[in-house]
Write a structure and sequence with these properties.
Blueprint: H1 20-23, H2 27-43, H3 45-55, H4 80-86, H5 92-102, H6 110-124, E1 130-138, E2 144-152, E3 157-160, E4 176-180, E5 185-195, E6 198-202, H7 205-210, H8 212-221
Antiparallel strand pairs: 1-2, 1-4, 2-3, 3-6, 4-5, 5-6
Length: about 220
């Protein structure tokens, strides 16, 4: 069987005016509706016509792949930094999915938009996304120690490792430091108590967002 030695890409941009019923669809349903509207006449007919035309120049069409995409025009895009601040636990592709799903559906206020994006992001991915970290903290004895732990990128919770859970941390101490990520970054954390499961330590979601790239890279490297 002959093997291909040239890859041809042909791109067309179509500016459409679609009914309101289609405009209100999310990204994936909109693509399916547009593909159905094009039908086999276009989706199957174009390769057939192309093969016949190329054949006139003794060129064989061996394989083809169709890709369809669409974006709404005249709709305010969501700034990347706003997406990241609301959903630092999402991967790049998941952030893109969230952005497409929420285009044209966000409030005017950044604060309200961030809260809405946060809810939608947690609905998409709510499981724990853990990265190894080290917590610098002061014990009740006054000694400063480093605790092995895991940082949950989904909500900022710091889960202290089993061997350090019985360590008694000094209450009301100044901000703790959590080191994690690739490359390593330092994040401020707060101590809100002590339970039988260990110290209750947390990092604000805003801090996760500020260091999101290094943190999500570390998580992806382990999964």
């Amino acid at each position: 069987m002959s093997s291909a030695n040239v890859k041809l890409r042909i791109s067309f941009d179509f500016d459409l005016q679609v009914p309101d019923a289609l405009l209100g669809l999310d990204h994936e349903p909109l693509l399916k509706a547009l593909q159905a509207a094009l039908g086999p006449t276009v989706m199957q007919g174009m390769p057939t016509v192309s093969a016949k035309q190329l054949g006139k120049s003794d060129i064989s069409l061996l394989h083809h792949h169709a890709h369809i995409d669409a974006s709404r025009l005249g709709v305010k895009t969501i700034p990347r930094e706003l997406l990241v601040s609301a959903a630092p636990h999402l991967t790049d592709s998941e952030l893109d999915t969230l952005s497409r799903a929420m285009l044209g559906k966000t409030p005017d206020s950044d604060a309200e938009t961030r809260r809405l994006l946060r809810r939608k992001a947690l609905a998409m991915v709510s499981d724990m996304r853990l990265v190894d970290c080290v917590v610098s903290a002061e014990l009740t004895s006054g000694e400063v120690v480093e605790l092995e732990a895991a940082l949950n990128l989904t909500n900022g919770a710091v889960i202290v490792g089993e061997k350090d859970r019985k360590q008694r941390l000094k209450p009301n101490q100044a901000t703790l430091q959590v080191r994690a990520g690739t490359p390593e970054v330092s994040l401020p954390a707060t101590l809100s108590g002590q339970t039988i499961s260990g110290p209750v330590i947390g990092v604000e979601v805003s801090e996760l967002g500020a260091h999101r790239d290094a943190l999500i890279e570390a998580w992806q490297a382990s999964h």
